[in-house]
From TrEMBL:
It comes from Cohnella ginsengisoli. One of its GO terms (cellular component) is plasma membrane. Its EC number is 2.7.13.3. Residues 398-429 form a coiled coil. This is histidine kinase. InterPro entries: 7TMR_DISM_rcpt_extracell_dom1 (IPR011623), BphY/WalK/GraS-like (IPR050351), Galactose-bd-like_sf (IPR008979), HATPase_C_sf (IPR036890), HATPase_dom (IPR003594), His_kinase_dom (IPR005467), HisK_dim/P_dom (IPR003661), HisK_dim/P_sf (IPR036097).
Amino acid sequence: MTLAGLAGGFAFGEGGPSGKPAAQDGIVDLEGYSFDKSGTVPLEGEWRFSWGELRQRAAFDRTIPVPGTWSGLPDGQGGRLPSQGYGTYRLELRHLPTESRMLGIRLPNLSTAYALYVDGVLVGSKGVPGESRASTKPYQLPDIVFFQPSGPSAIITLELANFHHRTGGIRSALVLGTPEQIKQLAFVHEAREFIVLGCLLMIGIYHIGLYALRRKELDNLLFAMLCICVAGRMSVIGEGLLPRFVPEMTWTAAGRIEYSFFVLSALSGFAYFRRAYSKEITRRWTFVACTAAGALMALTWGLPLLASSSLILCYQAFVVALSVASLYLLIVALIRGREGAALSLIGVAGLVGTVLSDIFFYNGWWRAPDMVPFGLLFLVVMNSFLISLRFSRSFAKAEKLSAELRRWNGQLEQRIAERTEALHAAEQSRRQLVSNISHDLRTPMTLIQGYLEALRDGVISDPGQREAVIGAMLKKAEGLNELIRDLFDLSMLEARQAQMTYELVPLPAWLERLAENYRMEMVTKGIAFDCRAEGPAIETACLKIDERRMDRVISNLIYNAIQATPRGGEIRIQARRGEWPFEAEIAVLDNGAGLLPEDLPKLFERFYRSDKARNYSSGGSGLGLAIAREIVETHGGRIEARIRPEGGSAFAITLPLAMRMNEEEEQ
């Protein structure tokens, strides 16, 4: 719907190019003009005009510009002419060409009832112009009339009355020419509207079919409504194709249908883009738009057409608001990189431009044809490109998926073999786990059983020996409890169900506490010990950790290093920035026996032992490094073992920093 319709209909601009004869003081001089060579003549310029009088009593005491409306023109008594009323136009044609005695006139939509006379003879009318609302019957349709002048001049008199619309007058120029030229002009206008109307209807029906095949795609139905509503509005204005097919349709019914299609087309267009890009604008906008549309529909059908057409500013505000909202959401969608947003934005910008063109025309700012249907066709072309783009990408994805499926099918046997091998390895790992657990449980249980049998049989009768045996059994029982506790902790950590209590811990303070905890023990074992943070970037860093569990990780690494480091050796805890920004690396370094390259891939597996890293006889359960890895990964970090080039081993823990340096924050 355009505001062209709100003003009572609009035909395509029919003014001729500059240089053609124009009316001056109610006279058009056609001397020397040839219709065959120069074409038709738009009857523009100054017509004589008589306000409030029909043809028989007209005084023609003033001039009036044509095309134009009489609303607001001076009435000659210090006031302004009202929009409702009646008057008579007059134009004299002089020096008519002699090559053709029969002439024709194409009349556009005139507001809102007229009777046309040539030399006093009625040649055409639409509706019944009268001196009051009761005596006037409104009706608007373009028309062509033919007449044969009785001499080299002719006088055109046009009675025009408007009591049913907000404006009265001649909005588009009448066109004079030969009968063949006028027929050709009318045919071009009608054919153009038929083509555009047919295209819009076919596109609308096509999208209804798409919606019927896939009900989830509601945007197809909304786009179909947009096309059909614009086509419906177009059918009752301009050439008036629908009233021509339905002669019983009254002017009031056609006007209300036009206004209804206007409201629905604006609403469906906005709803279509709101649906297509739902993340860019809230649903509340659709509710507001529907409410406003409902109010305008109620005004359209509840008020007389004169009253509803007088509210044109409301309709203009409605269409401008929805146009701005549509452009806004498409711009946001384009910024966010939504698929097809650029094409949709170009199409909507073209459509909005044609709508604004109509608004400017009916505000009297410029003259322009009704271009909204063409703007919509431009939008349809952009939408077709968008649909083609989506189909093309869908086909490309389907082809890629088909190629992937063929490749996967070709590798199916290989994948089955790999999966079978993986399952076999998992089964072997399970059996090894059960074997390790059985061994770690059987050894202490066998010793405890032997001690108990010796006590029962009286083999150990000395009180001192008895006390030593009981102490040994308690130590073995504690080892079993530790093993069971480690197994439970490991299972909870692997399932990510372990309770973690995170705190913000300054890294230097944590390192200082670790140094205090292990310094005395290192001294007694004759091992040099150092704990430091290297680099200014780490001095003010903080970690968000479960301090108790991270202490357990460091403890495991420290005692492993103590076992591998001889007296006189060195163990060092070193903290520095990691390889990536906002990471800290805490490494436990020793210069002991070191690690073998074949140990590195298996060090963090459950129950993996080497004499240098873990040994059950020294009290280890074989689960310490596996538990350490799970704790570190739960903190979002990683742990790895390295062989130091200078000798010894290094276990490095990388954790994300919770706070950057103050200097970095200021930057």
